[in-house]
Amino acid sequence: MVLILSGVLSADDLAQLSGETAQLTFTDGRATAGAAARAVKRNEQAAGPDAERVALFVRDALARHPVFQAAAQVGAFGGLLVSRYRSGMTYGWHVDNAVIQGVRSDLAFTVLLSGTGGQGGVLELDLPGGIQAVDLQPGDAVLYPATTIHRVTEVTGGERVAVVGWVQSRVRHGEQREVLFDLADVRATLARTGAAPDLQLRLQKIEANLIRLWAD
User: Fold this and answer.
1) Contact of 124 with 90, CB cutoff 8 Å
2) What share of the chain is helix, strand, coil (3-state, %, to 5)?
3) What 8-state DSSP symbol labels residue 117?
4) Equal CATH topology for 3-169 and 174-214
5) CA distances from 43 to 3, 125, 128, 148, 213 (A)
6) CA-to-CA distance for 117 and 132, rounded, in angstroms?
């Protein structure tokens, strides 16, 4: 399941982060790549306390997003990266490591801080139905299975700055997470439409019991 999450970061958030990321020191991103990915990785990453503050701010905003909460079923967050692509940079086809900073990577996410306005830097996912291009707007995020082969196309102008991270879900299997996501969506719809409280409660019970059955 691939989800685009709108409005994870507000305009004020983006303005604040723009000033903060402008002060970061970026270095060659290949330093954190595995042997296979290193050959196709051409981007930059920031490290240190200032970069960590940016990444955690973005992660916390994402964690508050109700759609992310329902879809990810977060057990733990793995690594976080602040990445930058300048003109000519790209990240070829690759797959993420199974374990990142001691955490199993079930899901990956990208939160876009600044985009390139049609100048490349598009995330592409190699899915069973074909290649899906994910061209985010600043402040938006994409959540997708970390098992997916993917790439970032070459940036032809401007800069693409994003926070990238990984999640270990408390529900290991994607099919089960999708069932829980659909239940959460139905439950939210019933609440909005004023359905009978006992019906809402029974659906909440079903959702909670499925989590008990499936959670690690």
Assistant:
1) no
2) 35, 35, 30
3) S
4) no
5) 24, 18, 27, 20, 42
6) 18
The pLDDT of residue 46: 96
54-108 confidence digits (pLDDT tens): 999 999 999 999 999 999 999 999 999 999 999 999 999 999 999 999 999 999 9
Q: How far is CA 51 from CA 12, 89, 176, 178, in A?
A: 19, 20, 34, 33
pLDDT of residue 31: 78
Q: What is the pLDDT of residue 185?
A: 94
For the stretch 25-63, pLDDT in tens is 999 988 777 677 788 999 999 999 999 999 999 999 999
Domain regions of the chain by residue span? 3-169, 174-214
| 174-214 CATH pick, 2.40.70, 4.10.860, 3.40.50, 2.40.230 | 4.10.860
Q: How far is CA 126 from CA 2, 13, 129, 135, 144, in A?
A: 11, 31, 8, 15, 11
Superfamily grouping for domain 3-169: q2cbj1_9rhob like domain (2.60.120.620)
Distance in angstroms (rounded) separating the CA atoms of residues 76 and 96: 17
| CB-based contacts of 143, cutoff 8 Å, min separation 6 | 2, 3, 5, 68, 71, 72, 107, 108, 109
Outline where the chain has alpha helix (H). Answer: 11-22, 35-38, 49-64, 66-72, 174-192, 197-214
C-alpha span between 96 and 130 (Å, rounded): 19
φ, ψ of residue 25 to 5 degrees: the values are -100, 120
